[in-house]
């Protein structure tokens, strides 16, 4: 973080250092891969409660992500209040109905068919927690003057990845949801115009009859997502 009256560079010795040998590095990377391959987006949640402390720890993890100029341009609104979740569902479904009834191009609707989605979003009220991710387009000093945030989408996306990984490590399931437009979330949650909603994440335990689309297990192979220049 920074303040207007202190803009100096102070170097600290690296506080945490890992010195694994090559076999242990490979083993740790493969173990993390195996665990993350068990992460699934679900649409059928149980109403089993999730402790607030788990959500707090996951958000702290997200807050440890790197960001442009270390401005940390994100805000996470965690909601368990049933009435507020119901309000968000109602407003989100209004936007989704427009999307599925002609607001989206035919090709987009066709691409969603294997996923099995529609305008009905019961997960927004059944899941015990919703986390709304906001991107802070600018910040303000104590006197109200604005300062610019840098690499905001990139920074928020990295932090959101940290958040999803942390929730998965805790044994929870998630679903990312992006109704468009999402401005209603600012009003519902009292967030300023400087913040743009990025997504809603439903968080909880899967219902006993939870399923995933078969297509979701079809991941591109390594050669389809990377190139190595040795």
Automatic annotation (TrEMBL):
InterPro entries per UniProt: Nitroreductase, Nitroreductase-like, Nitroreductase/BluB
Pfam families named in the record: Nitroreductase
Keyword set, alphabetical order: Flavoprotein, FMN, Ligase, Oxidoreductase
Entry annotated with the keyword Endoplasmic reticulum: no
Record keyword Iron-sulfur present: no
SUPFAM superfamilies linked: FMN-dependent nitroreductase-like
Membrane spanning stretches: none
Gene Ontology MF annotations: ligase activity; oxidoreductase activity
Residue ranges annotated for the Nitroreductase domain, each copy included: 37-205
UniProt-listed PANTHER family: IODOTYROSINE DEIODINASE 1, NADPH NITROREDUCTASE
Protein name listed in UniProt: F420-0--gamma-glutamyl ligase
Organism the protein comes from: Tritonibacter multivorans
């Amino acid at each position: 973080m920074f303040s207007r009256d202190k803009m100096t560079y102070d170097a600290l010795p690296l506080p945490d250092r890992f010195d694994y040998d090559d076999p242990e590095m490979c083993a740790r990377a493969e173990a993390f891969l195996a665990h993350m391959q068990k992460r699934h987006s679900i649409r059928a949640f149980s109403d089993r409660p999730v402790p607030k402390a788990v959500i707090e720890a996951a958000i702290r993890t997200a807050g440890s992500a790197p960001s442009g100029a270390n401005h940390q341009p994100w805000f996470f609104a965690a909601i368990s209040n049933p009435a507020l979740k119901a309000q968000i569902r109602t407003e989100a479904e209004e936007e989704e109905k427009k999307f599925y009834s002609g607001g989206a191009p035919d090709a987009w609707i066709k691409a969603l068919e294997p996923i099995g989605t529609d305008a009905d979003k019961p997960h927004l009220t059944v899941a015990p927690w919703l986390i709304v991710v906001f991107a802070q387009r600018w910040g303000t000093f104590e006197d109200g003057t604005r300062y610019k945030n840098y690499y905001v989408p990139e920074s928020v996306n990295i932090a959101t990845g940290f958040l999803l990984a942390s929730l998965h490590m805790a044994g929870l399931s998630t679903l990312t949801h992006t109704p468009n437009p999402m401005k209603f979330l600012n009003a519902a949650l009292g967030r300023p115009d400087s913040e743009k909603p990025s997504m809603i994440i439903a968080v909880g335990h899967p219902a006993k009859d939870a399923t995933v689309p078969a297509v979701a297990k079809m991941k591109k192979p390594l050669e389809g997502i990377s190139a190595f220049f040795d």
